[in-house]
Specification:
The protein has 4 helices and 6 strands. It is an alpha+beta fold and 168 residues long. It has one domain. The strands form 2 sheets. The protein has a 3-stranded antiparallel β-sheet with strand order 1-4-5, with no helix packed on it.
Length: 168
C-alpha cells in the first residue's frame, strides 16, 4: 500500500495504514481512481492454463459441493467481473453454481451491485451475459469485491489500482 512498517509498533503501523487509506479518498469522501492498464494476453503473468471457446469445460476444474443441500458445485470466492452499458464495471464476490461444462449461474443478493447489473440486463431482454471470474486475485481487489467500499457505478479495479499506488 505504499507504507513502510515501523518495526515492532503495531499501533503505529495501524495508524500509518489508516492514514494511507484516508489519504486515498477525495475531499467529497469518494475514492480516487486510476484506470487499469490493459495488456496483451501474451504478457499476462498467468498463462499456465488457457481454454477458449468450445475447449472450455468447467467440469474439469475441482469445484466442490460445499454444503450438503447445495444443488451442485459452486465457485464461492471468485471475483465476478460484469460490465454494463449504464453502470460500467462491477467486481463482486458472488456464489456461482456450475450448471454444466460452459454455463454458470451467478447469485448476487438484492442489496448487491451485481444484482442491479443483472436486473438491468434482464430489463433489456438479455438472458445471459459474458462474465469473467478471477480465482486467486490479489488481496486488495478481493477485499474491494467482497465489501461495500465502493458505491454503485464505481469501478473496484480502478479503486484497487489507486490503492496499490501504481501510476503506470
Amino acid at each position: 500500500m505504499g507504507i513502510e512498517p515501523t518495526g515492532d509498533h503495531p499501533q503505529k503501523n495501524y495508524k500509518l495504514a489508516l492514514n494511507r487509506v484516508e489519504s486515498l479518498a477525495s475531499e467529497k469522501g469518494t475514492w480516487k481512481t486510476m484506470k487499469p492498464i490493459a495488456i496483451a494476453g501474451s504478457q499476462a503473468p498467468c498463462k499456465e492454463i488457457k481454454y477458449q471457446g468450445k475447449d472450455i469445460d468447467l467440469l474439469n476444474f475441482p469445484f466442490i459441493k460445499t454444503n450438503p443441500v447445495d444443488g451442485g458445485c459452486y465457485i464461492n470466492t471468485g471475483n465476478v467481473i460484469l460490465e454494463d452499458e449504464k453502470y460500467g464495471r462491477n467486481v463482486g464476490t458472488y456464489r456461482c453454481q456450475v450448471k454444466h461444462s460452459s454455463k454458470i449461474s451467478i447469485n448476487p443478493e438484492k442489496n448487491q451491485d451485481g444484482w442491479n447489473f443483472l436486473m438491468a440486463m434482464r430489463e433489456r431482454g438479455e438472458k445471459s451475459t459474458p462474465a469473467a471470474i478471477v480465482l486467486g486475485s490479489d488481496p486488495i481487489v478481493f477485499a474491494l469485491s467482497s465489501s461495500k467500499v465502493s458505491a454503485m457505478g464505481e469501478d473496484e479495479l480502478e479503486i484497487g489500482r489507486r490503492i496499490f499506488g501504481k501510476t503506470r
